[in-house]
Design a protein that fits this description.
242 residues, mainly alpha, flat, Ectoine_EhuC, amino-acid transport, cell membrane
């Protein structure tokens, strides 16, 4: 315990870098997922081809390979050199955005066809149909999977330590090298990663509840460890036979 408390400021700095990488990488992934996912629902063959090319290309390449490409290959083939943090954000955002694009496409296609037919009967434009009818319903379906992708992105952000970003994984590595205590060095990092994950889970659950309330749906569900503090749903008993 003393090991962690004495080095808490150092681990906190690393955790803040990890959280910043997660937030910025998630924002890039979200923008790409929404744009590419919507393109994938269009009837235009060219739009679908662009969506398919992006999705298959960046789902099929490891984030670590993308990271090294942006950090080390780009300066060799162009006159530009990306900062390590920007290279990490690009690699994580492009990789996770490809998975998110499939989530968006599937959620929009899952909206009942009757909803689309009703908007066509009302002579709504494509933009109004998508913004006012399809996306609000698909949004609630996207959020649980988006939450999982954000957690995966946060954990994958540890790879940026390989190109010199002073994130939580980098701090743990340096502490292990300086003290020789692997258990406490990486155990402290595990605690910090766990705390960050719980904060992200809580935030995503709040978004899920808000989205479901707007649609008049039940908001019961998990919420990380905080869900253990909730009382059982009225009318149910723990361990009751179904």
């Amino acid at each position: 315990m003393d090991f962690f408390l004495n080095r808490f400021p150092v681990y906190l700095d690393g955790a803040l870098i990890t959280l910043l990488m997660t937030v910025l990488g998630s924002l890039l992934a979200f923008v790409l997922a929404m744009a590419i996912g919507i393109l994938g629902t269009l009837r235009n063959p060219a739009a679908r081809a662009v969506a398919t090319a992006y999705t298959e290309a960046f789902r099929g390449v490891a984030a670590l390979v993308l990271l090294f490409w942006f950090a080390y290959a780009i300066p060799q083939i162009t006159a530009y050199e990306l900062s390590p943090m920007f290279a990490g954000i690009l690699a994580l955002g492009l990789n996770v955005g490809a998975y998110g694009a499939e989530v968006v496409r599937a959620a929009i296609n899952a909206v009942p066809k009757a909803q689309t037919e009703a908007t066509i009967a009302l002579n709504m434009s494509w933009a109004r149909r998508m913004w006012l009818v399809l996306l609000p319903q698909a949004w609630a379906q996207m959020l649980p999977t988006f939450g999982n992708l954000i957690i995966e992105l946060m954990k994958a952000s540890a790879i940026v330590s390989l190109i010199g970003v002073a994130d939580l994984a980098d701090v743990a590595s340096k502490q292990q090298s300086s003290t020789g205590n692997t258990v406490l060095a990486y155990g402290s990092a595990m605690v910090m990663y766990f705390v960050i994950a719980q904060l992200l889970i809580f935030g995503m659950r709040m978004l899920e509840r808000q989205a479901n309330r707007r649609l008049g749906r039940s908001t019961a569900g998990g919420g990380g460890l905080l869900s253990l503090l909730r009382p059982p749903t009225p009318g149910t008993r723990v361990g009751a036979a179904k």
